[in-house]
Design goal:
The protein is an alpha+beta fold. The chain has helices spanning 2-8, 10-16, 60-76; strands spanning 23-26, 30-34, 44-48, 82-85, 101-105. It has a single domain, classed as HIT-like (HIT family, subunit A, 2-Layer Sandwich). It binds guanosine-5'-monophosphate and zinc ion. Residues 10-113 form the HIT domain.
């Protein structure tokens, strides 16, 4: 099951460049890019370069690498108002079964969503 998911996982394909993405920051252990369906302008995702479906399955070194990238993206976006979200399981609204952190700017009403 895990091997099958690894072969078909869209985020693994994004890491390998098999699916195009708007890349933001890449390290040895992590990859970040803009969300294809942004909830607001600049909505970004940070993913580990290790296929784990849920947070509790992710080795700590990948977790430790990913969060500072979320921080860098938030700073680059102005670090005013934003959410960092990470969903696990269908009931928790996870759609892509590869651990990912959302960085979602929360613009003011004047700035608009997208
Ligand atoms: P989830 O609901 O699993 O926490 O969020 C998955 C996110 O991945 C969604 O916000 C969705 O827009 C994004 N997403 C799904 N497929 C692609 C893709 O092929 N490219 C990019 N850039 N984002 C994707
Ligand atoms: Zn994957």
């Amino acid at each position: 099951m895990a091997a099958k998911n690894l072969a078909t996982c869209i985020f693994c394909k994004i890491i390998k460049g098999e699916i195009p993405s708007f890349k933001l920051i890449e390290t040895e252990l992590s990859f970040s890019f803009l969300d294809i369906g942004p909830l607001s302008k600049g909505h970004a995702l940070v993913i580990p370069k290790h296929h784990a479906e849920k947070l509790h399955q992710l080795p700590d070194e990948y977790l430790a690498d990913a969060l500072p990238i979320a921080k860098k993206i938030a700073i680059a976006q102005g670090a005013e108002n934003y959410n960092v979200l990470q969903n696990n399981g269908r009931l928790a609204h996870q759609e892509v079964d590869h651990v990912h952190f959302h960085i979602i700017p929360k613009p003011s009403a004047e700035e608009g969503l997208v």
